[in-house]
Amino acid sequence: MNKLDQLRKLTKVVADTGDIDSIKAYTPIDATTNPSLLYKAAQMPQYAEHVESAIRWGQSKASSEAEQVLHTLDKIAINFGSEILKIIPGRISTEVDARLSFDTEATVKRAEKIIAMYQEVSVPRDRVLIKIASTWEGIQAAKQLEKQSIHCNCTLMFSIAQAVASAEAGATLISPFVGRILDWYKKAEGVDGYPAHEDPGVKSVTEIYNYFKKHGHKTVVMGASFRNKDEILELAGCDLLTIAPTLMEELQNSDGDVPEKLSPDNSKSMDIQRIDVSESNFRWLMNNDAMATEKLADGIRGFTADTIKLEKYVQEKVRKAAA
Predict the structure, then answer these.
(1) CATH code for the domain of 67
(2) What's the domain range around 21?
């Protein structure tokens, strides 16, 4: 049995891509998308109709170009998401515009719109996770949305403070970013890499997983943003792992044992103290964590940049369609 199949016996495997063909190839349970992935997928010729139909839909909803583009962007995400849901048995994660990361009310409204658009194409809300950046404001939006049974994936997560605050807000799922943590430490410490068990991103997810299981949080942990297959294997047993198709292929082509690294039983026996995540202490903990602060800001800027690229791409197509 290859390593990917063995991993599936310990962990729910999620596809980290907007490429529908890749999802068909690796049959994951769930899938995640983000602006970067959608921008790449939208330019692939085989998915042109998903973009074109979104443009037609956007034009039918608004008269001004700016509003048409906004509606089209959301519809592209729904078109890809609903198509992916025809392939997978589980859930799709769809991201709220990163430019709303510090606006709780606007995040809630955008999430409600996304869910309504999924329901218009007969996708029930329990098959969708709304991805929200794990700022304080984003976590408070997730808290409000969960009360409406709109399930949230708190993303761009780099610290235990973000994780605990999200769990206490009742978020369905969190996505700690393993590879981006690794990137920061490699640069900060001037090293080429770490053994898998000493990888800072792996250690961060392990700490979060153990805390959640020790203190009985229902929020599930999905490791994300991997740089190599060894990081993935070191987290075997985590609730979920979202993996890019290239790394799934590496795992599928690898033989050998995949031992369980994380388990709730082990976590429950650990001496782990509770963390205060009141707003003031959350902000203090983030202030004292240079890596988390820098990577959160960098992630928001990066997703915003790719959203703007997609926006410009759509804008050009909207103008051509209107000509």
Answers:
(1) 3.20.20.70
(2) 3-322
Beta-bridge partners for 12: 240
CB 303 within 8 Å of CB 98:
yes
Alpha helices in the chain (DSSP H): 3-8, 20-26, 35-42, 48-61, 65-85, 104-120, 136-147, 160-168, 178-189, 200-215, 229-233, 245-252, 264-268, 279-287, 290-322
78 contacts: CB under 8 Å, gap ≥ 6: 54, 94, 114, 117, 118, 121, 123
Whether 86 is catalytic is no
Assign 323 a pLDDT band (cuts: 50, 70, 90): confident
Q: Could you say which of 3, 75, 131, 143 is catalytic?
A: 131
Instruction: Give the whole-angstrom CA distance, residue 116 versus residue 120.
Output: 6
Please tell me which residue, 37 or 107, carries the higher pLDDT value.
107
Which helix (H) or strand (E) element contains residue 133?
Answer: strand 128-133
pLDDT score recorded for residue 158: 98
